[in-house]
């Protein structure tokens, strides 16, 4: 299995899945093959007859990630038939949280597979991969500070990322006195974290050798997006550490956040795994993905003030069940 040739791959976990699902033709091919194997001619008829060269390119891309497979047709001598694989079926399941999230778009519901959805998903994937979303999830920032924080991205490229994110409603200008134009993430962008984690889970389960592992920036960005969404009982006051073991071995490496809660309100969420905490939750990337996406916490370790830690864990699970924000927020 090889990655599609001639393209620079995404740099963050989950971005490959998003790039695949952003393309309407990929979705059409996978959905058509869910109904059964088809020849290239039958696929063309089922997908609005794209140019043959375009169809070949997309079929190669999907075969490159094992989402579909090609075999001799049993009904037409000399022809090949394509069929969806378990990997492709798992990729289609990522469209469930993605579709729910798109339904909460600020300008009204957006249907997956449309040009509008493509623009949104592309902006999300590029903002995620370039670390722009990680930076803005931590705090409101103007362009000049973002430029200093993300030196690998040129100033014009950074401007394009911000423009794309703002155009589709993922970030907004934070109006305040002072110099510069500060940007902030929108509530809708925060809810995308559950789509991002579903995309990451697909990559780790299905194509780990073709995609980047979950790293420190991915963990920090996910928690920084998700934690402000949680709602806790008013009797919870504690500092809780959320930690992910991003590198295993004799000298494991952890990433995560320290969450401050006072009378049920999250007062801060900082990207650090050190510092004093009454409660803590730790686990591998896969154990956290299972918890966030499916509510399965069997492989997470909970310690210290167990009651406070579990309150945060339960709140994260509740937030993951509501993947689109209230339009009034």
Total beta strands: 11
Termini gap: 44 Å
Helix proportion of residues, in percent? 40-55%
Number of helices: 14
Strand content: 15-25%
| Order of strands, widest sheet | 9-8-7-10-11
Alpha-beta classification: alpha+beta
- Sequence stretches where pLDDT stays below 50 over 5 or more residues: 1-9
Determine Rg (CA atoms, Å).
Answer: 21 Å
The coarse silhouette is: globular
Largest sheet: 5 strands, mixed
Search tags:
329 residues, alpha+beta, five-stranded mixed sheet, three-stranded antiparallel sheet, 11 strands, 47% helix, 17% strand, globular, disordered N terminus
Describe the structure.
This protein is of the alpha+beta class and 329 residues long. Helix 1 (15-22) packs across helix 11, helix 5 runs antiparallel to helix 11 and helix 11 (193-206) crosses helix 13 (285-294). Residues 1-9 have low confidence and may be disordered. It contains 14 helices and eleven strands. It starts with 14 loop residues before the first helix and ends in a 9-residue tail after the last helix. Helices cover 47% and strands 17% of the residues. The chain has a five-stranded mixed beta sheet. A three-stranded antiparallel beta sheet has the order 1-3-2. The chain has a three-stranded antiparallel beta sheet with strand order 4-6-5. The longest helix has 17 residues, at 86-102. The chain is globular and about 65 Å long. The protein has helices at 15-22, 24-34, 40-46, 52-64, 86-102, 115-129, 132-138, 143-149, 155-167, 187-191, 193-206, 216-226, 285-294, 306-320; strands at 38-39, 68-72, 80-84, 141-142, 171-173, 182-185, 238-247, 253-262, 265-270, 279-283, 301-304.
